[in-house]
Structures are given as C-alpha cells and as structure tokens.
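W.,

You were right to be curious about this one. When I first looked at the sequence I had no strong expectations either way, so I just let the prediction run and decided to look at it fresh. Below is the sequence, 130 residues in total, followed by the output.
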Amino acid sequence: MRLLALLAVCGAAFAGITAAAEAGTMHPDLSASLTGMGEHGTVNLTVKSHDLCWTFDVKTTGITAASIRDTGGMVVAKLGSTYSPKSCAMEPVAAIDAIDAKPNSYVVWVDTKGHPGELRGKLAVGMAHM
C-alpha cells in the first residue's frame, strides 16, 4: 500500500515537472521575412496569453489584410479585422498553441487589393531585424 502511495506521489511530481518544462518552451517571439511580387518586408509577432501582437515593416501600399495560414492555405489566425501595421488581437488558445508548437509550419500572408497573399513568409522563432 505504501509503495502504491509512493508511486502515485512520484507520478504526480513528474507530471508537474513535465508540465512546467513544456510551459517554459513557449516561443513568445516569432517573425517572418516577407517577399513576393518584387516587394519585401518583415513582421515580428509576440504571443501574450490569448493575444497575438504584431509589428509589420513593409513598404507595399494597398494592404487590406494579414493572416497566419497553414501549409494548405487555411487561415489559422487573422491579424486584425483590417490591416494595421501594429496591433494585437485575441486568438483562440488552440490556434496559438498550434502556431507555437511548430512555427515553421505556418506562413504569414499579406493581402493587397490586387493580390491576395502578395507577400508571404514562413514563421521562425525569434525577432527579425526591421
């Protein structure tokens, strides 16, 4: 009986350590170098709980929207309801967790009036120099 109690305590302690280690692996800063249609730019993203904050540095005019998409082109997170070069938006925890787990599996798309997804760039861990 004591052995079972000891094993249960050790198992709970190990689970707590594992959860703490996983929580410590979150990537609070992500970035993407954006290219396309002869244009260039960068975006830096910061993850804060349910909020996803961004700062774009692009010279392209006529930007209408920006989003994070999976490799199939499906929107995972919208970076605002309309384009803003710097802002934050509340996103579902599942979306933020998925992006954080495999940032290189996601692409930032910047849409313009003439070309949806004109500028694109794969997410990477860390901040880009603007």
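Here's what jumped out at me. The first strand starts at residue 29 and ends at 36. And, maybe more interesting for your project: Residues 2-25 have pLDDT under 50 and may be disordered.

Coffee later to discuss?

I.
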